[in-house]
From TrEMBL:
Signal peptide: none annotated. The lineage of its organism: Bacteria, Pseudomonadati, Pseudomonadota, Gammaproteobacteria, Oceanospirillales. Coiled coil: none annotated. This is Sulfite exporter TauE/SafE family protein. Residues 9-212 form the Urease accessory protein UreH-like transmembrane domain.
């Protein structure tokens, strides 16, 4: 897959998944930025989100390495991974545009890990240091989330650990405006991100990229089959 296009798509997924991000992380972001001093509130939010994005990058590195290993086992696995990535992009586009919410059902996959991590988040939330906020963000980055899992399936299809880490970090940066807006009560930005026309345009872009991904994977296979 073309790297600039991949990174741009990751940014769009994070940016226009704003409503889902606010539901999943908006409450904790608001609690993290709960301070009467504006500069302290911003520093706490940046520390929390820095930890969260760091977790995404680690997950991207691990999943990218796993995808590379699977692709080296057999070429057919690469076809399956990239087909899955294309389908997940289509599902993300449907979710972002608010045409279907099937994507959220994938969140059940991470419940077992989250049951272990969740008690630790409560302890860190009671601490006000920036280090604790960063640690809280790193734990919160593993919260079960359909958008994250879908993006990770796409990262696995790339089969590149470093690109995987960069892609997931870019996805995390895309989610940053919504969560900062939620934490700082920036209503104008939140309204723009959640405007129906904006979301539908972003959804169509993601669906188009997903269709292109699936087509680019299987057309060469069909051509070889016909030629033989």
């Amino acid at each position: 897959m073309n790297e600039p296009l991949s990174l741009l798509t990751a940014l769009l997924i994070g940016l226009f998944g704003a409503s889902h991000c606010l539901v999943m992380c908006g409450g904790i972001a608001a609690a993290t930025g709960n301070s009467s001093l504006p500069e302290r509130r911003l520093a706490s939010l940046l520390a929390f989100n820095g930890g969260r994005i760091s977790s995404y990058a680690v997950a991207g590195l691990l999943v990218g390495a796993a995808g590379l290993w699977l692709q080296q086992l057999h070429d057919s696995l690469m076809l399956l991974l990239r087909s899955l990535a294309g389908v997940m992009l289509i599902l993300m586009g449907l979710y972002v545009a608010r045409w279907a919410s099937w994507l959220t059902r994938i969140e059940r996959l991470g419940q077992y890990l989250w049951r272990f991590l969740q008690p630790q988040t409560g302890r860190l939330l009671q601490q006000s240091s920036l280090t604790a906020r960063f640690g809280l963000g790193m734990l919160w980055g593993w919260l079960p989330c359909g958008l994250i899992y879908s993006t990770l399936s796409w990262v696995a299809a790339n089969g590149d650990p470093l690109l995987g880490a960069l892609t997931m970090a870019t996805f995390g940066l895309g989610t940053l405006p919504a969560l900062l807006a939620g934490g700082l009560a920036a209503a104008t930005l939140s309204r723009w991100l959640n405007h129906q026309l904006t979301r539908q345009l972003a959804g169509l872009l993601l669906i188009g990229y997903g269709l292109w991904t699936v087509t680019s994977v299987w057309l060469p296979v069909l051509d070889r089959s016909i030629s033989h």
